[in-house]
Amino acid sequence: MKHSATSRRFFIKTSALAGVGLVIGLPKLQGEALKSITKNLPPEFINLEINPFIIIRTDGSITLINPRPDMGQGSMQAAPSLLAEELEVSLEKVTIIQSDGQSKYGSQQSGGSSTVRGLWYPLRKAGAAAKEMLIQVAASRWATSTDLCFAKDATIYLKNSDKSFSYGELAEDAAKLPVPKNPKLKNPADFTLLGKYNKRLDIPSKVTGKAVFGIDIEVPGMVYACIQHSPTIHASIISVDDTQSLLVKGVQKVIRCKRTMPHRQSDAVAVVASTWWAAQKGRSLLNVKWDDGQLALTQTTDAYFQKAYEAAKKEGVRHEEKGDFLAKFNSASAKLEAVYETPFLAHAPIEPECAVVHYKEDGTAEIWAHVQGPDGGLADAARFLGIDQDKIKFHVPLLGGSFGRKAYHDYLSEACFLAKELKKPVKVLWTREDDITQGPYRPGMLSRVQGMVANGKLTGFHHHAIGESIVGQVFNGLKPDEADPWLSGELSTENNQYQFPVSKVSWTHVKTDIPIVWWRSVYASNFGWGQECFIDELAHLAGKDPLEARLAILKDERFRKVLETLAEKANWKEKLPTGKGKGLAIFASFGSISACCITVSTSGKGIIIEKAVSVIDCGHYVNPDNVVAQTQGNIVMGISAAIKDGITFSNGKCDQTNYHEYQVLRMNETPKMEVHIIQSGAEPGGVGEPGLPPVAPALGNAIFAATGIRLRKLPIDISSIS
Amino acid sequence: MAAYQLQINGKKINAEAASDMPLLWVIRDIVGLKGTKYGCGIAQCGACTVHIDGSPVRSCQIPISTLSKKAKITTIEGIGEIELHAIQEAWIEEQVPQCGYCQSGQIMSAVALLKDNPQPTDEEIVASMNGNLCRCGTYSRIHQGIKKAAIALKEGTSSPSNDK
Q: Which of A127, A128, A233, A404 is the most buried (most CB within 10 A)?
């Protein structure tokens, strides 16, 4: 068999590779990308790799590649399910592996709630194409038409006979066929896996402690590093006294290093030791003098919000406008304006930032890092190490939570920097204090909102979004006269579907040195608060019930259905005793529509959040239980963001250091929850994030309903309201 | 550095460690059992929960030198080694974990709760579990999982704690 190795390579070039571009929807592979495939594939896979996501071996074993890392959102089940549904294999009987960043897998970024909606067709087509190729081989062996063959449970059967071939028996010949360009996809009515309740296969390993997270990686000869970051994040080093650190048993070295953020680089000092405990002890004994420049004065949340509130008094840059909003607003007799505020927030995944990098003497590297996107992680690592991507073997273990954080590769940059210095495997592990005090954070934002009503109806709405821009800071990609383009995803009238005669979205960029980044549901987590509480205010001004006022300006059937279902499930019309109230909110983000109704009651000791009911229309989905789980998680994280203290900076430094100061919701604060999924059968939308934006405004509106107190600033101290 | 003899999951283990190294890091980086997790280092999150003589403790707060030689340590790897514990079964049944990172600690707290109090009330569940953070927000499923495990244990359909 050995001599056929060359011809096997030929096949992957001519048949399977041709399918990569056509079937999977990836850019056509050539040059380096092509070379990397043939080079890195184990020889036994070469002619059996039907396409990059499916590997069927002659012994019948099947491997599916999951291109989207799992941070808890369920992609390890969702993406392979899309392949398995069309390929007609059971997930229990296949091996699922995480993609490694190579370009043949296309975009591998878990983010923007994009896994299912982004892969719904490409992965199903990949599965269907493979199935058609297998059927073609079986049909030709039986000298019959493909119409008389069908696939089930990794086997091709001949109708009305006892004949069958396992996929393994067909794989070698199937790989020689051209990949069908337009394989026939199953009718959703025939799905056996998609849209059905299925237990997640990653869960057993997560109840026995066997699941391997980024922090769990250990490789032979590895050393540990704990890194002293600048308390003001961007200060430069004046001097380092490491005398005491080097006396700690196990500490090997103290190295000045760099933390590379997407937009700038910071000084840091790494303590390298034989155990992480020794490294962190060594760090605590460092005496580093920092030059903070003006950061103590400028890098404060007070200074930032002061600038933002100044901006709220002025007009911003117009992002979109329907009619002449200002003229109508000025001439309206019944109108309101207000400013809503959301704080900076940390992601605070329970697993802190961590990476293991081994830079070898021969100029190659091996990396284990819990990044959200293997492709982006690989590209950044190549840049950090100054070597080509094909010199790096990249592994992505499980992420112990992320919520956007681990797509920011500063921790990986540090591990790369140290690995190059040390030429041995090094594990960089951030402390919780690093995670909380160093950012990046969800930006604090203002929503300056204006609106008017006439004849019991909402007739105009202006949302002026004010704050630091993710596009501007992280990507350095925002011109001074330009509105942040990411606003259009969440604030445009196309997105919220409210039919106002006049409306406007505008923007003012307020810069800060505090590092920011996307956080679960990105800007929707900020602007949902201002939009949906203010719609509530306008409804009351119009003398209408908040549900009816919204329905009166919503034409879109899916939005209406979500609200009507919420009203029914949450018993919206129920008459409540004094001191009790319900509030609702609806917000569309990441291709899905989600609404939430929260019930609160007042007590002598503040507000009690009794119950949260959420409804989501995410179109087609993979696993209803996971949609429920993600939406429950969004209710918890949404309430946490609404009632727990945010991140503040004084004198250039973060005021919170660990979970005792940056508190996140606990079990005793979690209300009863109900989640309902609308079976719209629409194109798939996101699931990991859309449940969050309506939660805070539903709570704010409920507090208003119960107490008459209109709150416009998050977080809410619910203990102080009665 | 000093030599310590530990009893972890029924096995005697020798470990060389600095006297102030917390049990968490001894378990993870010296003994090599990675199921016990680091989350905060200040007993705020509960990810590092293990049992000492059957009681849940935050292993990040216990310097190895303060541990009694007789202390029987149980980590997540020692729960359900042969047959899954009722809590683990319930966690799968209720599909509790999302990212799963905090779940070793959650399970250790829950197993200890049911050992002391086989039929806890809702309030007792909250009181016992409130020290364990879950950023994914799986609290309602954890709560439900404990109730389910309690029923399974009562009806004898699942295996009880097998702390060694």
A: A127
Q: Give the contacts of A527 (CB within 8 A, at least 6 positions apart).
A: A445, A447, A463, A465, A490, A491, A693
Average pLDDT for residues A107-127, to the nearest whole number? Answer: 93
| A48-99 confidence digits (pLDDT tens) | 557 789 988 888 889 899 999 999 999 999 999 999 999 999 999 999 999 9
Q: What does pTM read for this prediction?
A: 0.94
Give A141: exposed, middle or buried? Use CB within 10 Å, 0-12, 13-18, 19+.
middle
For chains A and B, count residue pairs whose Cβ atoms are closer than 8 Å. Answer: 185
Q: Which of B86, B35, B45 is nearest to A215 (CA)?
A: B35
Nearest by CB to B95, from A203, A658, A666: name it. A203
SS3 A524: helix
**pLDDT, mean of residues A203-220:** 98
The CATH number of the domain covering residues in A301-345+441-720: 3.30.365.10
Which CATH code, of 3.90.950.20, 3.30.365.10, 3.90.199.10, 3.90.1150.10, is assigned to A2-207? 3.30.365.10
Q: What's the token pair of residue A262?
A: 């997407």
Dihedral through CA A555, CA A556, CA A562, CA A564, nearest 10?
A: 30
* CATH 3.30.365.10 intervals, chain A: 2-207, 219-294+353-429, 301-345+441-720
Closest CA of chain B from A478, distance in Å = 32
ipTM, two decimals: 0.97
Q: With cut-offs at 50, 70 and 90, classify the pLDDT of residue B159.
A: low
- Interval A524-549: pLDDT, tens: 999 999 999 999 999 999 999 999 99
In chain B, where are the structural domains located?
Answer: 2-78, 86-154
Q: What CATH code would you report for B2-78?
A: 3.10.20.30
Query: A208, B138: Cβ pair inside 8 Å?
Result: no
* B60's tokens: 């990040």
| B144-154 b/e (C-beta count within 10 Å ≥ 16 → b) | bbbbbbbebbe
- Please provide the CATH number assigned to the domain covering A219-294+353-429: 3.30.365.10
Nearest to A469 by CA among A455, A457, A453, A480: A480
Q: Do B137 and A635 touch (CB under 8 A)?
A: yes
Task: Tell me whether B2 touches chain A (CB under 8 Å).
Answer: no
User: A467: which residues sit within 8 A by CB, 6+ positions away?
Assistant: A308, A443, A444, A445, A446, A509, A510, A526
CB contact under 8 A, B138 and A349: no
Residue closest to A702 by CA, chosen among A617, A539, A585, A623: A585
Architecture of domain B86-154: Orthogonal Bundle (1.10)
Q: Where are the alpha helices (DSSP H) in chain B?
A: 23-25, 86-93, 103-116, 122-129, 139-154
Phi, psi of A607 (to 5 degrees): -85, 135
